[in-house]
Amino acid sequence: MRLVLLGPPGAGKGTQSARLVAKYAIPQLSTGDMLRAAVEARTPIGLEAKPIMERGELVPDAVLVGIIGQRVKEKDAANGFILDGFPRTVAQARALDEMLDHEGLKLDAVIELVVDETALLTRMQNRVDETRARGGDIRADDNPEAFKTRLDAYRSLTAPVSDFYAGKGELKQVDGMEPVDAVSAAIEQALSR
Ligand code: AMP
């Protein structure tokens, strides 16, 4: 199963990906997690990405295409994967198509979690409060200013990715405003269509 999960920041992509990982025994490939690990390890990519991520902007396509190009070739992704946070631009989506074509593979589904934007800031704030309560690290881009930039980037650069997949007949939209279990059930239903 090769899946792409689309949706704005705070839509629940991470939560739903984790459930799909358990169900299908395929890895969640979160480009945000990979970049945060690179920042933490101070690799050249991490050093380049850090200030961009802190502002809430997108890291250049070439960097992401390189990261994902390597990652999907790893052994654990041989039977499939869930892409969480990639592709985020139409150029990335085209590069992914090329990568998969080259390997003779294709996506099984592209699921978009559709959410009401006014709820997203509250969800982000809840995530910060929960993380703080359990003593975890707060993401550098989980603050109102960077979050606004992330939403702007989503609207201008990532929303067209949904149109790109819709145009190819691959997009399945799911209501992401429902409770977590109901969203999971809707994803299952979409995957069986
Ligand atoms: P996320 O954890 O998916 O919210 O990603 C956190 C940040 O990492 C984003 O705001 C971007 O700065 C960067 N990032 C993650 N994935 C991508 C991507 N596919 N393209 C560009 N930047 C990305």
What labels describe this entry?
193 residues, alpha/beta, Rossmann fold, 12% strand, binds adenosine monophosphate
**Number of contiguous helices:** 8
User: How many strands, what sense, and barrel or not for the largest sheet?
Assistant: 5 strands, parallel
The CATH architecture term is 3-Layer(aba) Sandwich
**Spans of 5+ residues with little confidence (pLDDT < 50)?**
none
* Total beta strand runs: 5
CATH class type: Alpha Beta
Task: Briefly say what this structure is.
This protein is of the alpha/beta class. 58% of the residues lie in helices and 12% in strands.
Account of the 3D structure:
The chain is an alpha/beta fold. It has a single domain, classed as 3-Layer(aba) Sandwich (Rossmann fold), CATH 3.40.50. It is built from 8 helices and 5 strands, in the order E-H-E-H-H-H-E-H-E-H-H-E-H. It has helices spanning 13-24, 31-40, 44-55, 61-71, 90-102, 117-133, 144-167, 180-192; strands spanning 2-6, 28-30, 81-84, 109-114, 171-175. The chain has a 5-stranded parallel sheet, with helices on both faces. Helix 4 packs parallel to helix 5. The longest helix has 24 residues, at 144-167. The relative contact order is 0.19. Bound molecules: adenosine monophosphate. The site of adenosine monophosphate (AMP) has 17 residues, from helix 2 and helix 3.
Tell me the layout of helices and strands:
Layout: E1 2-6, H1 13-24, E2 28-30, H2 31-40, H3 44-55, H4 61-71, E3 81-84, H5 90-102, E4 109-114, H6 117-133, H7 144-167, E5 171-175, H8 180-192
Parallel strand pairs: 1-3, 1-4, 2-3, 4-5
Helix pairs in contact: 2-3, 4-5
The structure holds adenosine monophosphate.
The site of adenosine monophosphate has 17 residues, from helix 2 and helix 3.
